[in-house]
Amino acid sequence: ITSKMNNTSSIVVFSLSGFNATVNYRVTLFFLTLLCYGLIFVVNVSLILIIILDENLHEPMYICLCNLCINGLYGTAGFYPKFVSDLLSDIPVISYAGCLLQVFVIYSYVKVDFSVLVLMAYDRCVAICRPLEYHSVMSVRRTAVLVSLSWLVPLCCEVMILSLTSRLKLCGSRIQKLYCENWSIVKLACSSTTANDILGLFFISFYIGHVLFIVCSYVQLVKSALKSREGRRKFTQTCVPHLLCLLNVTAALLFDLMYSRYGSASVLQSLKNFMAIQFLIIPPLLNPVIYGLILTKIRSRMISLFMMAGQRVKLRLKV
């Protein structure tokens, strides 16, 4: 839907054509989405509250984990409410401003995820490779600064990307996805996108650098962990869940990136949809579960809370 102003095309509303493949099972998807979002909300909020309320968990690693869960809630809030309302709509559309806002929230969420995972890798590297210096290196002040940067840098990156995207002259209004995505908007441009391409490649390289940093950290961690039984125990308890979360996020994001840039028109739309929303389903749902099951302190705290809740229920039933 477009309006003409000064012989240029000004997009007012985008249509989300990814919903065309959901016509026959929208009711089923609606209830599954509510269930999925409910589970994501419950597991993330539970872990956040456990970390905040238990003073024994006020350590850098758990603070990072808390931020990972907060970020999961932030990112999914940019997708699920709109997705649910679109499932109930005959013609799924989104305003231009709403589209840019959704792009900002969803893709800043991805960038913050990688930044927090890098911070967690650094924390584990110091804890295992330099245990005697850990508390001086990962002081409360330094942890606060690093956590703040893990949010501020991705948010600034996304502002820069969207400032360029918002200046593009667009000659189309159809986005072939279930949500707004920056590359989908850029592909609609009929003006030069060279600056967008260069900045996009720069930030992709920047976050590939994040992954390489984590890989290098793990090489150091493995070398140190193999030297002692205590090192191996620490590595198994705290690094394995971090590694699983990294693989989880990276694999889900690669699906979306490959689909966005190199997706074939012959691929079924329903498969495209699933590939495009993986990183909004799997990481925010599985990350808290992985950490909750593997980290001893959190697992024991959760078990004690469940036992206390069970005892209270028994007491009430007796009364």
UniProtKB/TrEMBL annotation:
Localization in the cell: Cell membrane
Task: Kindly list the GO molecular function terms attached to this UniProt entry.
Answer: G protein-coupled receptor activity; odorant binding; olfactory receptor activity
User: InterPro entries from the xrefs?
Assistant: GPCR1_Superfamily_Member, GPCR_Rhodpsn, GPCR_Rhodpsn_7TM, Olfact_rcpt
UniProt cross-references to Pfam families, sorted A to Z: 7tm_4 (PF13853)
Keywords, alphabetical: Cell membrane, Disulfide bond, G-protein coupled receptor, Glycoprotein, Membrane, Olfaction, Receptor, Sensory transduction, Transducer, Transmembrane, Transmembrane helix
Q: Which domain of life is it from?
A: Eukaryota
This protein's record includes keyword Membrane: yes
Q: Where is the G-protein coupled receptors family 1 profile domain?
A: 43-291
Q: Which GO terms describe its cellular component?
A: plasma membrane
Q: How does it sit in the membrane?
A: Multi-pass membrane protein
What protein name is recorded for this chain? Olfactory receptor 6N1-like
- Recorded source organism is Seriola lalandi dorsalis
